[in-house]
Design goal:
alpha+beta, 434 Repressor (Amino-terminal Domain), globular, 24% helix, Jelly Rolls
Length: 194
């Protein structure tokens, strides 16, 4: 069975469970997440895969763990060695965007420090809405080259380059040719005492 199909079915089930556990209707979750009711229905039926932005909005609205939705074996205990084989690493493809995202960090790290491998096809892109205040992304290009925008700033990275940029602004990563990179998202919430 196709891995993308397995992930879509798993996501459908986990999102529906999370919505039911919070006694939310599709309409209520649509209002909380900004994802349309019809798209939610398609996702829960396994008829459509959510984009990264939609998945992020849904996990925020439901108060659930982003990576944990993809990892059926996640437990609160941390083993001494936690070996995830390449074939078992949670991954999803941004439909029509030419970017596959592999989740390398533990589910318990979501909202703190997240690590992803990004695989871009020629012309692929990954655009994101702003994360929490103070969030920073660290992008290292392993092969190819990538152009990053954060707010109004832009930089082009070659193989081996690393860029740190604000992720609390709209930001995007684009590849002209095929590229591979590691992305570390550091959520460093700024708390202003009142």
């Amino acid at each position: 069975m196709d891995m993308d199909h397995d992930i879509t079915k798993h996501l459908a089930s986990r999102l529906k469970e999370a919505r039911s556990a919070r006694s939310l209707s599709l309409e209520a979750l649509a209002q909380l997440s900004g994802v349309s009711r019809s798209m939610l229905s398609q996702i829960e039926r396994g008829a459509s895969s959510p984009t990264v932005a939609s998945l992020w909005n849904l996990t925020r609205a439901l108060g659930v763990d982003f990576a944990g939705l993809l990892d059926s074996s996640a437990t609160p205990e941390s083993p001494i060695l936690e070996h995830t084989r390449a074939a078992d690493t949670p991954a999803f493809t941004e439909t029509g965007k030419g970017c596959t995202i592999r989740i390398l960090s533990a589910p318990t790290d979501v909202g703190k420090t997240e690590i992803y491998e990004l695989l871009f096809q020629a012309g692929g892109s990954l655009a994101s809405e702003p994360h929490d205040a103070g969030a920073i992304e660290h992008l290292t290009v392993l092969t190819g080259s990538l152009t990053v925008t954060s707010g109004d700033a832009e930089a082009t990275l070659a193989t081996g380059d690393t860029l740190r940029y604000r992720a609390d602004l709209p930001h995007a990563i684009r590849a002209r040719d095929a590229a591979r990179a590691v992305l570390v998202v550091k959520h460093d919430l700024v708390v202003n005492p009142s």
